[in-house]
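Supplementary Text 2. Reproducibility record for the structural model of the 85-residue chain.

All settings were left at their defaults, and a single model was retained for analysis rather than an ensemble. We include the record here because the model underlies the residue-level annotations in Supplementary Table 4.
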Amino acid sequence: MDNSNPIRRPRRILWPNVLTVISAAILISAEVFGAAFAGSWAIANLLALGTFGARLLDGLFMLIGVVVMVQFVRAAHHVEPFTAQ
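Retained model, structure tokens:
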């Protein structure tokens, strides 16, 4: 008998873990992106950058927010696995 190729069962999705991570991501993203917009507005007004400068800072801070959210979801995936065998 050859045990080198065992039969694999499909993985089960652990919905409580998936929903926990999605819920936390929604909450944290609201805070991260809200802070990004508020921060860009405040810095643009403080430095008198005008509308274009504010939009430029919006884009930069939103990009940073996306990076933060991706890192959060990746870290949460390690703590709360999405699938089980």
